[in-house]
Amino acid sequence: MNDKRRFRKQVIAIVCIGLILPQAVMAAPAAANRQITDVALANGGMLSGQVVDQQGLGKAGVQVVVLQQGRQPAYGRTDHAGNFQVAGLSGGTAQVVTEGGQGVYRLWTANAAPPVAKPRAMLIANGQVVRGQAYCDPCSSGGIGQWILPALAAGGIIAGVVVATSDSGSTPASP
């Protein structure tokens, strides 16, 4: 009887570890502190910038989206050299997003910009877009991820068998 209890506790511990492990393995890394860059807008609230790849070459035909709190998104597209212009913006913090890259900028109107403000925004598109929090490249290419579902299924089956075959020691109420 004592062996059954010990076995049951071991199975429960294994199932609990199996339920906790996938979340720890697949948790997204904490976002790095983003540096906010000061950028001066041209007259008319025009933001100019360039989208480049990791080698510094301009990326042509990339859509650029500028997000400012409380405002509709503003859109632009890069030319053959990766340059873009987005009009109708106002001063304040903005997130500039492209496929594979993003940046946070403090936009200044033309006459309010400090001397350190840059005339253009520079975005580096790394080409690796991660959506959601369940990204785990080693998991999808044959790493530990291929074992998570079978391990959980086996744990569930074992737990079900243990519960079904457990002897509580009580006799039935009716003969």
Task: Supply the CATH architecture of the largest domain.
Answer: Sandwich
Radius of gyration: 28 Å
Query: How many domain regions?
Result: 2
Total beta strands:
8
What's the CATH topology label of the largest domain? Answer: Immunoglobulin-like
The first-level CATH class of the largest domain is given as Mainly Beta
- Distance between the amino and carboxyl termini: 24 Å
> Which regions are unreliable across 5 or more consecutive residues at pLDDT < 50?
none
Q: How many helices?
A: 3
Mean pLDDT: 79
Describe the global form: rod-shaped
What's the CATH H-level superfamily name of the largest domain? Immunoglobulins
Secondary structural class: alpha/beta
Proportion in β-strands: 15-25%
The string of secondary-structure elements, in order, is HEEEEEEEEHH
**Strand order, sheet with most strands:** 1-7-6-3-4
**Amount of helix:** 25-40%
Main pleated-sheet profile:
5 strands, mixed
Structure description:
With 175 residues, the chain is α/β, with parallel strands linked by helices. The protein folds into 2 domains: 2-28 and 142-164; 37-124, Immunoglobulin-like (Sandwich). The chain is built from 3 helices and 8 strands; from the N terminus they run αββββββββαα. The chain has helices spanning 2-26, 137-140, 145-165, and strands spanning 37-40, 47-52, 63-67, 74-77, 83-86, 92-98, 101-108, 121-124. The strands form 2 sheets. A 5-stranded mixed β-sheet has the order 1-7-6-3-4, with no helix packed on it. A 3-stranded mixed β-sheet has the order 5-2-8, with no helix packed on it. A hairpin with a 6-residue loop joins strand 3 (63-67) and strand 4 (74-77). The radius of gyration is 28 Å and the shape is rod-shaped. The relative contact order is 0.20. The model has no long low-confidence stretch (mean pLDDT 79).
